[in-house]
Design a protein that fits this description.
The protein is an alpha/beta fold. A hairpin with a 6-residue loop joins strand 1 and strand 2. The chain is built from eleven helices and ten strands. The strands form two sheets. The protein has an eight-stranded parallel beta barrel, surrounded by six helices. It has a two-stranded antiparallel ribbon with strand order 1-2. It has a single domain, classed as NADP-dependent oxidoreductase domain (TIM Barrel, Alpha-Beta Barrel). Bound molecules: NADP nicotinamide-adenine-dinucleotide phosphate. The site of NADP nicotinamide-adenine-dinucleotide phosphate has 29 residues, from strand 10 and helix 10.
């Protein structure tokens, strides 16, 4: 496909071929299709990051058929910055394409000081979404999530807030993130009774973090809820970039907040090396195999990657060229992961 050169940042016109290579999958029992690869703005969209690069990343993503951008109130740094930058780029480049986009935000983690800027109260969720909409310059988000379970707030209140937000027209759909299988069943039941079904669950899920397989994916299937797997590349570890040391421009070196050098141990790298060899035999790189491995399960609606460079987007989208696995490949992967 023809790739626009965005480096000169001329006025944006989306690629006419943007829907030709991407594939889309239905999100649970809903009316929404999501691209097999979605883009998250957790990293690389703060005020400390290059704004021009942010703009190039979003343009390149949309040109590749990535119609879903995932944000949260606290993505930055500082908190709120990713939504502000996204809002600036939306205004400059994407307003003509708003109806082709699924934009999500979330609340649930620390956002502002005091007792009302965190967790899962109605007070916090409603106020936080109002702030997010202002920062992004939007009338509504397509999906609004509760970002993590809150053990101190009745689930009825938190789910009631999600339902209210939809009825207010501030979100079209709602989702939950990091909820366990049991919490998800309860939340789904309450939301169904309220008449606002849960569209989607956002779990952390990768070859190296498989907790979602322990009941959660079964609940999602039963309830007709879609899923979006976050940190599918384990923040870059599953790209093989750390096999030969710590590149200066990598997340572990540039931004050690969530991915520390210490967590990338020789034992972990031995697994990554073995996985990398299988990927090479499949004619893919490791990032591509890690994405394909998640998408082999139809309960995974979309894989939510982050990127620091535009080339990484095309690289990740090229994973769709080889999505099938032989039984032998899957067995070998299991052996490596369970070693
Ligand atoms: N719901 C939640 O609680 C939660 C929590 C965390 C994240 N999320 C969501 O999930 C999204 C993705 O998370 P993530 O950024 O951790 O995802 P990830 O895809 O596992 O890691 C992204 C990082 O991997 C590297 N990378 C990506 N593609 C590459 C490629 N083809 N080749 C080489 N390196 C590549 C880049 O890091 P370098 O800087 O090293 O280039 C990139 O920033 C977030 O933006 C957010 O929307 C949600």
């Amino acid at each position: 496909m023809k790739i626009n050169d965005h480096n000169a940042l001329k006025p944006y016109e989306a690629s006419a071929e943007r829907y030709e290579t991407m594939q889309y999958r239905r999100c649970g029992r809903s009316g929404i299709d999501l691209p097999l690869i979605s883009l998250g703005l957790w990293h690389n969209f703060g005020h400390t990051d290059d704004f021009k690069n942010q703009r190039i990343l979003l343009r390149r993503a949309f040109d590749l058929g990535i119609t879903h951008f995932d944000l949260a109130n606290n993505y930055g740094p500082p908190f709120g910055a990713a939504e502000e930058n996204f809002g600036r780029i939306l205004k400059k480049d994407f307003l003509p394409y708003r109806d082709e986009l699924i934009i999500s935000s979330k609340a649930g983690w620390d956002m502002w000081p005091g007792p009302y800027g965190n967790f899962g109260s109605k007070k916090y969720l409603v106020a936080s979404l109002d702030q997010s909409l202002k920062r992004m310059g939007l009338d509504y988000v397509d999906i609004f999530y509760h970002h993590r379970p809150d053990p101190m707030t009745p689930l009825e209140e938190t789910m009631g807030a999600l339902d209210l937000i939809v009825r207010q027209g501030k979100a079209l759909y709602v989702g939950i993130s990091q909820y366990s299988a049991e919490e998800t069943s309860l939340a789904a039941k309450i939301l169904k009774e309220l008449g606002t079904p849960c569209l989607i669950h956002q779990p952390r899920y990768s070859m190296l973090d498989r907790w979602a397989e322990n009941g959660l994916l079964d609940v999602l299937e039963e309830e007709g809820i879609g899923s979006i797997a976050f940190s599918p590349l384990e923040q870059g570890v599953l790209t093989g970039k750390y096999l030969k040391g710590f590149p200066e421009d990598s997340r572990a070196v540039k931004d050690g907040r969530y991915l520390t050098k210490d967590s990338i141990t020789p034992e972990l790298l031995a697994k990554v090396k073995a996985l990398n060899e299988i990927a090479e035999q499949r004619g893919q790189n490791l990032a591509q195999m890690a994405i394909a491995w998640l998408l082999k399960d139809p309960r995974i609606t979309t894989v939510l990657v982050g990127v620091s460079k535009a080339e990484q987007l095309l690289d990740n989208v090229n994973s769709l060229k080889v999505l099938d696995f032989s039984t032998e490949e899957l067995q070998k992967i299991e052996e490596i992961l369970n070693a």
